[in-house]
Structures are given as structure tokens and as C-alpha cells.
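Figure S7 source data.
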Amino acid sequence: MAGQKTVLIVGASRGLGLALAQEYCDKDWHVIATVRSQSAQLEALRERNPCSLEIHPVDIVDVQSVRDLRARLDGRRLDTLFVNAGICKANELTPLQVDEQDFIDMMLTNALSPMRVIELFADTVASDGVIAVMSSDLGSITWNQGWWELYSASKAALNMLMKAYAARHPANTRALLLVAPGWVRTDMGGQNAELDVSESIPLVVDMVQRHAGKPGLRFTNRHGETLPW
Ligand code: NAP
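C-alpha cells for the predicted NAP complex:
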């Protein structure tokens, strides 16, 4: 549809990513959503929105699959890129207790891989567009209280890499957002989390889109309030 905006959501099979896909569809955006393997919930959403949702496979840890997606989408213009994919393992453990591979997996999935997606896709985002990545309150070093410390370290590393990316691209005109969605009931957030998805994602999407045309890096919650690094 002429004038329809396009968002690429990386990691949209379930949880917050699926809700992002639903929310952008509801706002009549064209949604390009990625999954690692088939997602019945995302397929159901596509059934309801046959023209506005397309699904592509990508595993962000596998950089070749990210390059393949970049090649498939060559020539497409994004208004928003939203990298949502993330994992949490060994959340109650300490550096002495954790299986090294679990820590490596979190650093790869939550810090290095999202930034590789951003590096590879930034030039497909409109000059007045938005590049958002799902961070967390727990990525704030200032606020840290020792909770989920290894996962928190991976989100703090993501924040650092995004800050370095912004510093390396001083002429960048896109908004660069590290988004803290709140503690939300998903597979990762668990059933004791404070918020239902519906109390987070609509606010996240409104906040992200309010930043279109506003260059610069921000670490922000769903309300648009700046968080301390
Ligand atoms: P979730 O329910 O566990 O969903 C995680 C999503 O990330 C799934 O779609 C998963 O795909 C995808 N993913 C994981 N590893 C991937 C990879 N290597 N390549 C591509 N996709 C991958 O978690 P969630 O609560 O929705 O979390 C979404 C994001 O928000 C994460 O970055 C998380 O750290 C962040 N976050 C969550 C909360 C919260 O309270 N829930 C709070 C702050 C930040 P599969 O289905 O294939 O596994």
C-alpha cells in the first residue's frame, strides 16, 4: 500500500517480539518479522493480516543467516528496525557457578549478535527512521542490585556496544534506541512479572515511533524516560 510504513522485527516468534508484530500490524504497518523456526502464533497473525506481514528465517547468532536476510531484503526501505531477540540462561547463578557456555551464549545472543544485525541493516533504515534494540532496566550499571547478574552483564554489554556504534557514526541521522520494556510476563519474564504484554508493547511502539526524525542515542523505558547507564 502506498505510504505504508515498514518495520523489520528480528525475533518475533513469541513473547514481546510477537506482540510487537501484532501492534505494528494493528497500526497498519507492513511488518517483516523473523523467526528461528516456525511459529504457529506468528503464522496465525499472518493469516489475519495476509498483505501486511511477511516472515523470514534468521538466527542472529549465525551471522551468515543475517547476511542472507540482508541480501533477500536488498533494495527494501525500512522505517524502523527493531532487534528484539534475546535469551536468559542461568539467571540465578554467579560467575563461579555458571556454565561458561551459558554465559557465552548470552553474550553472543544479547550483545554481539544484535549489533551485527544493526551494522548490516543500518543503511536500509530511512534517514529519519529508528533503530531500536531491546535492552533492559537490568542493563543499567547504576541501578544494578545483583539481580540476574549474568544476563544483566550481557545487556550492559549491549548498551556499551550501541554507545560505541553511535560514537563511530557521528553523522547518523536515525534515532538509536536502547529500549527497556519493563518486567513483562513472557517465557523469559515469568508469570510473576509486573506487566502483561499489553501493558508494555503498545507503549513501547508509541515511544519508539515518537522518536522518528530525532537523531541520537537514548537508553529509555517504555514511557520515553531516560535511564541511567
Ligand atoms: P522470550 O519470550 O524468551 O522470547 C525471546 C525471543 O527471542 C523469541 O522470539 C526467540 O525465538 C528469540 N530469539 C532468541 N534467540 C534468538 C536467536 N539466536 N536468533 C533469533 N531469535 C532469537 O523473551 P521476551 O520476554 O519476549 O524477550 C524479548 C526481548 O526483550 C529479549 O531481548 C529480552 O532480553 C528483552 N527483555 C524482556 C523482558 C521481560 O520482562 N520479558 C524485560 C526486559 C527485556 P525462538 O522462539 O526461536 O526461541
